[in-house]
Each structure stands twice: as structure tokens, then as C-alpha cells.
């Protein structure tokens, strides 16, 4: 009787299973967007947004169907400028970006079901060599690594209605909650970082139908407490007109919006 070598079989499983996760599909019909509070405060820019197209990140895997990325820009004056990538072999430090360290807040009341915050923040992928690295070998390795490698440091909250929110790419050591903690709307969870599959510090947030991203389908959101500035647009992140698949009334790519705290929300931890 012959037996397949265990190391060879395990290697095959490690290669095939992550790729099969990209076959995870959302519900057959788009559910009505769930109204939540915005997870940031102040002025932000939406990118890779379901307000422009769905799937917003180009994939259905890991509950990312309606995910959105949020960034801050250095000043109002530079919203039309894109930094030149250059040819440096070493990207900028995360602290050089205005998004880095910004507080992240719970969008709805619920229970924390998962926290990872020990992963180290990496430097930005902001030059041609580092971008090529991120889009090729590094990207492939992160796919094989699953949600941990893609989302980086993260907090996952299961809401009282059964939906779940994932807040990803958080700064190392910034989580102020632990699994099992009860959180209220507007309670701080952590801070924006640069961990996982990211080119620069930003917040990746998504709503899911279950707490495990590997098996979850994404759900659409509607944010309360958001005021879109129709007079300004970040051309660095804008991608033109929204596609028919876009979620209505959600900030589109490049749109600049002000996020305000819900009434009675806890004060920001400034430390």
C-alpha cells in the first residue's frame, strides 16, 4: 500500500485552499445596506470603495465584497497631487503618513470576537520596486497566508443584529479591547497602522455575515454621521463615474468627507 508523502500533500493543501477561498460568494441578492456609524473622525478620503463599484476590492474572498479603505491626506491643498513613486528600494516609514495612528471606533454595539495586534508595521510600498514587490511575490505569499497576512492586525466585532465588522491594518499594539469585551457605538478599538496587505497606512473596514473572514460573505453598509464635501475631490484616489454595481449614498473613490462622532460617544484616547 502506497501513501502520499505528508510534506508534499501538505504543501498542495497550503497552495490550493487559499485560492479556493476566492470562490466564496456573497448572498445571491444584495441585502439592504446596514446603517452604522462611521468608524473614523475628521476629514477622510474613500478609496477602493463600494460607492464606486462592487466588488470594491476586486474579490469576494475574506468578506471583502463591500469593504472600503480610508486615508487621510496631509493638507487640503495637496488633494490634487499624487506623490511620485521613484525608485527607492526602501519605502517611507508609516509615521510619515497622516493616517498613521488615527483612532478607530466601533460602528455599532456588540461583542469583540477577535483581536490581533502583535504584527509589526511595515514600511510603505511607495516606490516602483516596492510596488512591484507587493503586487507579485509579496502579494502571492499573503494570499497563501490567508486572512492574517491580508488583513494584518485587526479587531472583529459581532454586532447585536448578528452582523460582524472587521477593522484591519491596525497599528502594532494599538488595540484597546480584547476578545469577549462588550463595546458601544463610538468606542475606540485601536489605531490606524500599516500591517498586512497594504501600500501605505490606512483603515480597511468591512461588514460581514459571520465573524470568520475566511468563510464570510460581505454585506453593504450605510454610514450615519458622514458629510461629503461636493466641492472637493482627491484626484489621487478618484476613479471616475460610479459603476451600476455601486452602493448608493456611500462615499465614492476620491470623495472627501467629514466624519462626526455620534451623540454621547466616548472621548478619544489621545495617548
Automatic annotation (TrEMBL):
<dbReference type="GO" id="GO:0016787">
    <property type="term" value="F:hydrolase activity"/>
</dbReference>
<keyword id="KW-0378">Hydrolase</keyword>
<feature type="domain" description="M23ase beta-sheet core">
    <location>
        <begin position="149"/>
        <end position="209"/>
    </location>
</feature>
<dbReference type="InterPro" id="IPR011055">
    <property type="entry name" value="Dup_hybrid_motif"/>
</dbReference>
<protein>
    <submittedName>
        <fullName>M23 family metallopeptidase</fullName>
        <ecNumber>3.4.-.-</ecNumber>
    </submittedName>
</protein>
<dbReference type="InterPro" id="IPR050570">
    <property type="entry name" value="Cell_wall_metabolism_enzyme"/>
</dbReference>
<dbReference type="InterPro" id="IPR016047">
    <property type="entry name" value="M23ase_b-sheet_dom"/>
</dbReference>
<dbReference type="Pfam" id="PF01551">
    <property type="entry name" value="Peptidase_M23"/>
</dbReference>
Amino acid at each position: 500500500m502506497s501513501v502520499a508523502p505528508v510534506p508534499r500533500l501538505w504543501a498542495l493543501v497550503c497552495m490550493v485552499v487559499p485560492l479556493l477561498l476566492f470562490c466564496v460568494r456573497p448572498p445571491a441578492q444584495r441585502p439592504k445596506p446596514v446603517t452604522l456609524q462611521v468608524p473614523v473622525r475628521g476629514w477622510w478620503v474613500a478609496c477602493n470603495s463600494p460607492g464606486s463599484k462592487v466588488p470594491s476590492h476586486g474579490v469576494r474572498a475574506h468578506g471583502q465584497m463591500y469593504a472600503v479603505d480610508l486615508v487621510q491626506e496631509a493638507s487640503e491643498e495637496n488633494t490634487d497631487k499624487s506623490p511620485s513613486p521613484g525608485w527607492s528600494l526602501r519605502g517611507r516609514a508609516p509615521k510619515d503618513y497622516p493616517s498613521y495612528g488615527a483612532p478607530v471606533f466601533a460602528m455599532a454595539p456588540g461583542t469583540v470576537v477577535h483581536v490581533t495586534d502583535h504584527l509589526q508595521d511595515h514600511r510603505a510600498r511607495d516606490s516602483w520596486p516596492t510596488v512591484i514587490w507587493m503586487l507579485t511575490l509579496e502579494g502571492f505569499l499573503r494570499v497563501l497566508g490567508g486572512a492574517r497576512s491580508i488583513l494584518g492586525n485587526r479587531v472583529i466585532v459581532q454586532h447585536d443584529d448578528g452582523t460582524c465588522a472587521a477593522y484591519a491594518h491596525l497599528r502594532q499594539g494599538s488595540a484597546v479591547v480584547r476578545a469577549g469585551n462588550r463595546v458601544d457605538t463610538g468606542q475606540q478599538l485601536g489605531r490606524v497602522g500599516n500591517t498586512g496587505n497594504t501600500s501605505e497606512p490606512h483603515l480597511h473596514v468591512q461588514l460581514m455575515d459571520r465573524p470568520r473572514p475566511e468563510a464570510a460573505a460581505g454585506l453593504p453598509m450605510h454610514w450615519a454621521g458622514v458629510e461629503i464635501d461636493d466641492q472637493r475631490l482627491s484626484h489621487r484616489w478618484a476613479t471616475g463615474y460610479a459603476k451600476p454595481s455601486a452602493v448608493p449614498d456611500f462615499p465614492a473613490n476620491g470623495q472627501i468627507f467629514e466624519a462626526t462622532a455620534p451623540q454621547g460617544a466616548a472621548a478619544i484616547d489621545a495617548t
